[in-house]
Design goal:
The chain is mostly helical. Helix content is 57%, strand content 7%. It is built from six helices and three strands. Strands 1-3-2 form a three-stranded antiparallel β-sheet. The radius of gyration is 25 Å and the shape is globular. The protein starts with 8 loop residues before the first helix and ends in a 27-residue tail after the last helix.
Length: 172
């Protein structure tokens, strides 16, 4: 059986993501935020002092990647970080005035890229596509809430036990 990449969800999602990323880069420019940086800036701008844990949940970016991103964005002066007053182990993140300017200057380009991404499909398919993507993201969020997603186990084919001969009843 030949493998068909056109029927591989992972392959198709990667191609779609690459196309959307290229559109974003062209619309925002090389000096603008990456798509993930834009997501972080956007969420933080609407949730002042958000914890890094809640930022992971809101963006879907894994914890270690997000920690590295935040460190780089702190160095660029786009974000500030402080310890949570109630939990000294937790960090809260806020957007800086510089981060707000970067977010604001990128917003029109991101919107343009989003429109161009959808315009690859006929108008009659765009709403269904967005609904399916939203449902997929919701399903991934539910998997994440329950722990790491585990692949479904294949049910082993039950071997038929050899027929047992009826035991003769012993004498009493």
């Amino acid at each position: 059986m030949a493998y068909d990449l056109r029927k591989s969800p992972g392959h198709l999602l990667r191609r779609a993501q690459q196309y959307a990323h290229d559109l974003h880069s062209n619309a925002v420019g090389g000096d603008g935020p990456t798509p993930r940086q834009f997501e972080v800036l956007h969420v933080v701008s609407r949730n002042k002092g958000i914890s890094q844990t809640d930022l992971v949940r809101a963006t879907g970016i894994d914890r270690s990647t997000l920690a590295d991103m935040i460190a780089r964005m702190l160095k660029k002066g786009l974000l500030s970080r402080s310890r949570d007053k109630d939990d000294a182990r937790a960090n809260n993140v806020s957007i800086t005035p510089s981060g707000a300017r970067v977010l604001g200057s990128a917003a029109a380009g991101v919107s343009k890229a989003d429109t161009a991404t959808l315009n690859a499909l006929p108008k009659t398919q765009q709403a269904a596509f967005m609904k399916a993507l939203g449902a997929y993201a919701d399903a991934l969020d539910k998997l994440a809430e329950g722990g790491a997603a585990k692949p479904a186990k294949k049910k082993a084919a039950k071997k038929k036990a050899p027929a047992r001969k009826k035991a003769k009843r012993g004498r009493r």
